[in-house]
């Protein structure tokens, strides 16, 4: 199944999340309102032209796994690399304190604000609809969250792992991440996660708790002219 993990975005947009996607049999995007992510059937020859009718001028998108010249109609805003990591640890123990709260549409504004403030990657007002998201609250304030996004074959991505700066250092995001790992393993799924290569602290944490490096793809932010 490593071919699925080589291109999990496409396998998600053309499979499990097809109802949330727009595009063709060569290129797809999440529909507006969801995470601004593009996927291609062939990362060696991404058919960006096929997406032009489905993307508005000025829209920014994340895309991973392809390099080379950006074709006409698009501009490259940023380029980096990230680690794609797959779980191979033991079943994490259940944590007692700070019981996570399932997040739903009523939490969309707070989740969007936290994801934006913490620059936790592509996130939209309807991203919570893509999977099971958990949060920790201080009163009515959402202070930490993590959730599920891409689903490719038996693999389920953990994403948007973030904590409000005022609450960091308490292990809240780690607690939420491991709760999702437990949930996915119980459902027969294999967790995977992405972390930017420059985020060495998070990378070390993920290695320590039970993930291993699978690949280090290029990740780009591009926008429609």
Automatic annotation (TrEMBL):
Pfam families the UniProt entry points to: FR47
Keywords: Transferase
Species this protein is from: Nitrogeniibacter mangrovi
InterPro entries: Acyl_CoA_acyltransferase (IPR016181), GCN5-like_dom (IPR013653), GNAT_dom (IPR000182)
UniProt domain N-acetyltransferase: residue ranges: 81-225
Record's signal peptide: none
Domain of life: Bacteria
MF-aspect GO terms: acyltransferase activity, transferring groups other than amino-acyl groups
Name the UniProt record assigns to this protein: GNAT family N-acetyltransferase
